[in-house]
Design goal:
eight-stranded parallel beta barrel, five-stranded antiparallel beta sheet, alpha/beta, 43% helix, single chain
Length: 527
């Protein structure tokens, strides 16, 4: 091995911890680790390298690599971003317009949490975002609603009508006619005969079989129906068979909300391999990109995801605690104190009957335990009239805080305006009626949390993954330990720049250089 020499001004070398830290943090310039004649190790960002002649011994060299260099170049180009970073959709407007706008203005992409919101509110949000971000990309959430199909259809029609060009498709187990419609109606040909994908889809998945559906062209069974109903043209019908259903696939590991709690280090490589197999089969013009979500709350986890091949990162739980979040200050304070173990699984409102669960905060709320009890009762009995009197009294006094008959009246009023078919299906079907009554609690519990309803604190449903605890651990004793100081773009910047710093440190360590411990411990003030 050739001993390389560093040539430059000795005054540009730092041998003290503070000076070394400053030069290591300057990831926009190359970094040289040198050894002087007395054996001291120093750091510099200047100088030249040669293989012979006089000069200091070069122990390691690291090229410039910044936060903006992470991720897939085409992802950043397609969405006109500087950073391969996305704020995930959190339903009921928790991923608020303010959050989407803040990320967009900092050259990242955010997804508005449209799920669970009435069309008028979503329409208003779209207008607000489009006004604030006339050129920057943004996304809106499109959540699979197999129980309430009218919701999904209404969302798709709204997005098409108002020019929403990117959707984040979440909670899908199978594709639906509606998401196929959204994808197909945006397809066209340019002047050169190339396919133009006007409506982009970012599919969020945690299972290989679901990823395969998004990576494949639209199913003919849906295209045939759409063509027959004249909802798509013949050209769109044909083009939809030549492109995948999604431009990007977000691998959702151990996240807040809907999740299968899969480890990212296991799931991401599986989906990346599947992507390569799909590409070999269909030979798409542009390869599908695969991003990572779930468990990302520190620079180390961000770097790990990129190192495994993630095209972009998606964060969620840590954003919910930010000032731009659409949830209440009470929830933000709770989230700022949790540990990574303060989470649990509970039944999901939107797919309650299917037994689908989501990850929620356990600390400071009894929602998880009460929701699990409701599902246990639902599976055990055929209707509310079959519930034993003693158990029913407990539900009415501790969970619902009103009679089940009163809850049902509320359900009728709610669905008559939103989706009357739900009430029609429940007539003469006690099991279905019981499900709607129980979903009343599951649905409102997240609203109580968002509004900070004081007499329902113990019923707050707060979607949260272990990344929140990891973030709190990393930021303790810094200004970011307080919820009032947490801003979504600032946190994103800290994560990415911290990851770039760690990338530099790891590259130096890989060359056999042992740096002082103070430089390895990454704190907020070090970025």
């Amino acid at each position: 091995m050739i001993d390389l020499k560093w040539i430059g001004s000795p005054r540009e070398i730092s041998f003290d911890i503070q000076g070394m830290s400053e030069k290591l943090k300057n990831t926009a310039t190359p970094c040289y680790i040198v050894e002087d004649l007395s054996g001291r190790t120093g750091v510099t960002n200047t100088g030249t390298i040669q293989s012979e002649g006089k000069g200091l011994f070069l122990k390691a060299i690291v090229p410039a690599f910044t936060a903006a260099d992470f991720g897939d170049t085409s992802f950043k180009k397609d969405y006109q971003l500087k950073y391969a970073y996305k704020g995930g959709a959190m339903a009921n407007g928790i991923a608020s317009t303010d959050m989407v706008i803040a990320l967009g203005k900092n050259e990242m992409i955010g997804s508005f949490g449209a799920a669970g919101m009435i069309p008028a509110r979503v329409k208003e949000a779209i207008a607000t975002i489009q006004t604030a971000l006339p050129k920057q990309a943004y996304a809106c959430n499109l959540i699979h609603s197999p129980i309430e199909k009218a919701l999904e259809e209404g969302a798709v029609n709204l997005y098409i009508e108002h020019g929403v060009k990117v959707v984040e498709a979440s909670a899908y187990m199978n594709l639906s006619e509606q998401i196929v419609k959204y994808r197909a109606v945006g397809l066209s040909l340019d002047a050169h005969g190339e396919i133009v994908i006007g409506n982009k889809v970012i599919g969020k998945v945690s299972r290989k079989e679901v990823a395969m559906r998004f990576m494949s062209p639209a199913p003919l069974q849906f295209l045939d129906k759409l063509l027959a109903a004249e909802k798509i043209t013949q050209q769109q019908y044909e083009l939809a068979q030549k492109v995948p259903m999604a431009d990007d696939i977000t691998v959702e590991a151990d996240s807040g909300g809907h999740t299968d709690n899969r480890p990212l280090v296991v799931l991401l490589p599986i989906i990346l391999q599947l992507r390569d197999e799909i590409q070999a089969t269909y030979n798409y013009k542009k390869q599908i990109r695969v991003g990572a979500a779930g468990g990302i709350g520190t620079p180390a986890s961000a770097l790990a995801a990129f190192s495994m091949g993630a095209a972009y990162l998606v964060t969620g739980s840590i954003n919910q605690a930010c000032v731009e979040s659409g949830t209440s200050d009470v929830v933000k304070e709770l989230l700022s104190k949790v540990a990574s173990t303060d989470v649990t699984m509970a039944p999901a409102s939107d797919m309650f009957e299917l037994g689908v669960e989501l990850q929620v905060l356990k600390r400071g709320t009894l929602f998880g335990a009460r929701a699990k009890k409701l599902y246990e009762v639902y599976t055990r009995y055929d209707g509310i009239d079959d519930i034993p009197a003693e158990e029913r009294v407990k539900l009415e006094t501790k969970t619902f805080k009103m009679s089940l008959e009163q809850v049902w009246e509320g359900c009728v009023s709610f669905f008559e305006e939103r989706d009357p078919e739900q009430i029609a299906h429940a007539k003469g079907n006690p099991k279905r009626k019981m499900a709607l009554i129980f979903r009343w609690y599951l649905g409102l519990s997240s609203n109580w949390a968002n509004a900070g309803t004081p007499d329902r604190v113990m019923d707050y449903q707060i979607w949260c993954g272990p990344a929140m605890g990891a973030f709190n651990e990393w930021t303790k004793n810094s200004y970011l330990s307080e919820a009032k100081n947490r801003k979504v773009a600032d946190i994103a910047t800290h994560l990415l720049e911290g990851a770039a710093y760690l990338h530099r440190i790891n590259t130096i360590k890989d060359q056999g250089v042992h740096l002082p411990l103070e430089l390895l411990q990454l704190h907020i003030e070090n970025i």
